[in-house]
Structure formats: C-alpha cells, structure tokens
TrEMBL record:
Belongs to the FemABX family. Keywords: Acyltransferase, Cell shape, Cell wall biogenesis/degradation, Peptidoglycan synthesis, Transferase. The keyword S-adenosyl-L-methionine does not apply. It comes from the Bacteria. It comes from Streptomyces celluloflavus. InterPro entries: Acyl_CoA_acyltransferase, FEMABX, PG_Glycine_Bridge_Synth. This is Lipid II:glycine glycyltransferase FemX. Gene3D superfamilies: 3.40.630.30.
Amino acid sequence: MTFRLRTISRDEHLAFIDNLPSASHMQVPSWGDVKPDWRAESLGWIDEADQIVGAALVLYRPLPKIKRYLAYMPEGPVIDWHDTELGRWLHPLLAHVKSQGAFTVKMGPPVITRRWDAATVKDAIADPQAHRLGEVEATTHDPRAFELMERLRGMGWQQSGGGSEDGFAAGQPRYVFQLPLADRSLDEIQRGFNQLWRRNVRKAEKAGVKVVQGGYDDLATFYELYAETAARDQFIPRPLEYFQRMWTALTMEDPNRMRLYLAEHNGEMLSAATMLTVGQHVWYSYGASTSRKREVQPNNAIQWQMIRDAHALGATVYDFRGTTDTLDESNHLLGLLRFKVGTGGQAAEYIGEWDFPLNKLLHKALDLYMSRR
C-alpha cells in the first residue's frame, strides 16, 4: 500500500492528533502560531480508504534574501516509525517540501532508544569513572530504534550534529527525564520518590506553601521569576511576548493544552511553571523560581501538584523534558538532573534529529552558520 501526501486543514490535523494517545506538543496545529517567524503547514498521509494515517506540522524558515527554506518538523512527523516500508512515508514528504522551496529537511522522530532507571542514574552520578550518561549501560533498550537509525542512514538521512558539551542539542533535547504514571496510584508514585523529595513535599505543606493555577494575566508574574532564573542560571530568556503568544495559541486550541502554576508563601510568589498536555502525555515545559525562601521548598510543591493534576487528567507519563547527559560534578546542570532523579522516574534517550540535504551547498552553509552560533 502506498500513501498520498496532501496539505490538510487545521481541523483535520487536530482531529487526527486527538485520536492518538500521545503526540508532541510541537506537532499540534497551534504550535505554528507560537512561531510567527516560520511559515506553518499541516500535512497528512492518506491511505487507500481516504483516511489520514499520519500527520506533520512542517515549519518553513526562509534563508535571508533568497526564497529557499529550512523545513523543520520538531519531534515529528507523527507516523508509524517502525514501518519497514519507511520510504512510503518519507519519499513523498521530501518531494513535497522540495516543491515548496526547501533546501534541507530537519526532523525529530519521537522514538526512544534507551532508558535508565533512577537507581542506575543515581549510581552513575556517584561513580567517579562515569562521565556521561550515554556511556552507562542502559536499563532497557529498544532494538527497533537502532534498526530505524540504520534504515534512515540507508535512505540518505544524516544524524544532526549540534550537541553541546552538556548533552543538549541545538534543536530539541535528545535526553529527557520521564516519570511513568500509567497504572500507578498517587500513593505508589509518591512512594517512588526518594527520601529527600518526600521530605521536601512535607516541608512545603507544613510551611503553608500554596500552589494555584494562573491565567494569561499571571504570565507577567511568571516572567519576573523566569527573568530572575535566567540571570541566575546564565541563559538567554525568551521575551514575555513569547509566553503570551504561546498561551493564546495553545489554550484557544484546547483549554487544557497549556496551564500555568504558581507557588506562593505568605503572599510572596516563589515559583512558577508551565505545563503542556497532548493526549495522555504531559510535559513540564518552563520553570522559574526566586532564590528567596528556598527552605520552604516551593519547587517540590509545584511539581507535586502538577504531577497530581497530570494523573487526574489520565496522563500515562509526566515528562520533565530535557536533561543533561553529563555526570560531571562541576557542571551546574547536574543539580537539575539530581532533582528529577529524586522522583524515581527514568532518563530516556531519543534517536535525535535527522537532516536530509536537498541542496548540499546550501545545507553545508547552514551547518557552518549553526556551528558558529
């Protein structure tokens, strides 16, 4: 069986996504509205019964001065990645984006290769001989993911570079940390926390930390904490307008697509975080906190509330998103990994992002530009 590929409407795209247990929040139609510098297009693979069997949100970014585009599918497309006839999905995709003026294609198959349970990660952090998580024997691995990688190479796709010394890629994170929720009660989930996490949750409750949901008008409060976090952790913050646009676009599509949580103590806002939901997959998206009153543990309080709400929504996984793969004690990102490991979840490695150069000269120029950023 072969598939036809055509542009689909937002409603068709959303209906397909809504029938799935999980898909990336970067592959829903509204994500294109979050990225106004990119032109968004919804594509659908159509079977012989005229049914949509796969979908992609393609973002086109123009090269300066010439009408050629980078075609990007963050954490997508949403197709059967383990189909042995992968060409019937990817060949029409390449032909279509080329007809739209794309000079190269970048995609991020949402396929996990390896997982490390919390105990394995904890032992690796304590082992002075372990330097990177990727060098540590995984708890489980999926042979199909490695077969997929070989299949992509055989089709001319190239695994993207762009990884940093901290294990974060220039695109979407290759390493993430996830807390499984499926078939587990809240008591079972909390019993999976380490002693420090359970103690900090109790401390926050005893101190009277209150966690509430906010709305659009509370994004300014979130942003104050976010800007403080950026200055403290030395990263470049996104502008407030980005989060306002994100809120408007995502909640218009689905009221539960994006939530804002705020943790306060005696009237003082201490921590805030955003949560995203698609199907049974929930992500902790952005976090922010002040350095004041850390002893009342607002970060543990806000995460525990978000985990409980994700569980109530029927989520099967609470995703902490990107994490470093470095195990170097001198790296400040290791503390964030320790925080996530305390929930008793799993570190996971995706197969990463992949490129297909449609114009090798322009693709090489893009690679050179990205390497100098």
